[in-house]
Amino acid sequence: MQDWREIYQSKLVSAEEAVSHIPNNSRVLFGHACGEPTTLVDAMVANYKQYENVEICHWVPMGKGEYCKPEMAGHFRHNALFAGGATRAAIAEGRADFSPTFFHQTPRMFRDGTLPLDVALISLSRPNEHGFCSFGVSVCATKPGAEAAKLVIAEINDQMPYTMGDSFIHVSKLDYIVETSHPLPELGGGRMTEVEEAIGRNCASLIEDGSTLQLGIGSIPDAVLKNLGDKKDLGIHSEMFSDGVVELYEKGVITGAQKSIHKGKIVVGFLMGTKRLYDFADNNPDVMMLPIDYVNDPVVIAQNSKMVSINSCLQVDFCGQVNSESMGIAQFSGIGGQLDYVRGATMCPDGKSILAMPSTAKKGTISRIVPVFEPGTTVTTTRTDVHYIVTEYGVANLRGKCVRERAKMLINIAHPKFRDELWAAYYERFGKED
Ligand code: COA
Predict the structure, then answer these.
(1) Which pLDDT score is estimated for 222?
(2) How far is CA 165 from CA 22, 68, 255, 290, in A?
(3) Inter-CA distances, 416 with 193, 356, 420, Å
(4) 278 and 167 share a domain?
(5) What's the start-to-end Cα distance of the chain, in Å?
(6) Alpha carbon nearest to ligand 1 atom 28, residue
(7) For position 148, which CATH number holds?
């Protein structure tokens, strides 16, 4: 058998050459979030005139999103599975598309021809002594995507952590290799507001010792973790997490000792945080990075005992419908794994799903608790799935409650300055009670 080092050398090319092999009229997947292969993406964008009708498909954009610029039209078109700062305007202006998809179902869609991939552009760690590179901070659907694509182009970034789990690919499976060295995209590390602190305390009041946690995207999950310092034997089974987990692991609060599956392990699909988090995950066998069709499968999530999912949202209406991804008709983010975890935690006999948000938005000028949504608003978590809603003013357990009762409970955790107008809408809809 040929030595893997020779194979590696034979596939080494420049970024320009690597991306020149992307065919016209093809679909290209980018590694997810902080696993975006920015050297390859920059080379594609710099040479955009050589391409015709190339679809660029990915979830959370953490790069510059330059392939969405108006002058790229006809060369590139973005198909967003999750919107972000760099891609929202293009989607709103009709220059890019948005495809609603459950994160855990996308690997299956790559494999069964629903969303076939011509090319995967991925970012990997350096190979180990056996010739295996790690997908590093982004295993989730990046690894299944690379396994399904006809052509795999990888940048090997010596700053990508070598993470453990089902997170490896052998150099023989790569078609072109580009060596690079750059820091990974980072997120978080900012200061917490008083409102976030209060939300964190309210969520923490629902978490018992021995719970297994899922933590969503945004600053609220870290505010929750900050309030869990006195808990015992917490575990993690999560689509993603950021820096807050590191501190609790180092303090001995996160041990996974009471987990019912993968005891002692932190199970996760991707990482999004600062270098501190990436260093923590590097070569750490306690951090088990797995593909998302397993991690986010509600049936798998439900096998965890005391499963608590904690996600953020943008708006809740009187019925308990939750919007976490749009501002009216404009796509703001995506569903990600929100409903996977709401449902997984709900199927778990002692599970809880928490959706948390500040009571107001737009610098306190509007209430996020509203009688009805404006037309076009996305319902991310349905009123039938919803369980706990948390704001800085308290906790509303909506499960099993009638719509009238839900409306009352939600008004009681709305910002006090909006409660009068919310009660007026309540009386108009449900009538005055004695
Ligand atoms: N109307 C108008 N503007 C609103 C609004 C509303 N109802 N709700 C929020 N906003 C504004 C906020 O004021 C804020 O603007 P600012 O930055 O100018 O103050 C902005 O929108 C972002 O809101 P915020 O609540 O701070 O967002 P976040 O970064 O905490 O993210 C979600 C929250 C819900 C968008 C994010 O968690 C998400 O995309 N969730 C869906 C996916 C998911 O839950 N996945 C879970 C597994 S990872």
Answers:
(1) 87
(2) 30, 34, 17, 6
(3) 19, 17, 8
(4) no
(5) 84
(6) 218
(7) 3.40.1080.10
Contact partners, residue 215, CB within 8 Å, separation at least 6: 221, 222, 224, 225, 236, 238, 240, 241, 242, 244, 245, 310
Q: Band of the pLDDT at 434, cuts 50, 70, 90?
A: low
Does the active-site annotation cover 93?
Answer: no
In whole angstroms, how far apart are CA 259 and each of 12, 201, 224, 299, 378?
43, 23, 20, 16, 34
Read off the pLDDT of residues 268-281 as tens digits, 9 standing for 90 and up: 999 999 999 999 99
> Is 186 within a domain?
no
Regarding whether 297 and 174 lie in a shared domain, the answer is no
* Cβ count near 399 (within 10 Å): 14
Q: What are phi and psi of 259, to 5 degrees?
A: -65, 145
Same domain for 115 and 175:
yes
CB atoms within 10 A of CB 194: 8
In terms of residue numbers, what domain contains 53?
A: 4-180
- Beta carbon of 238 within 6 Å of any ligand 1 atom: no
Give distance in angstroms: CA of 174 to centre of ligand 1: 37
Angstrom distance (rounded) from CA 325 to CA 330: 9
**Does 218 contact ligand 1 (Cβ within 6 A)?**
yes
pTM: 0.96
How far does residue 217's CA lie from ligand 1's centre (Å)?
9
Q: Map residue 63 onto helix, strand or coil.
A: coil
Q: 43 and 166: one domain?
A: yes
Catalytic residue, candidates 36, 155, 196, 239: 239
Reported as type and span, the H/E element at residue 311 is: strand 307-312
pLDDT value at position 70?
96
CATH number at residue 313: 3.40.1080.20
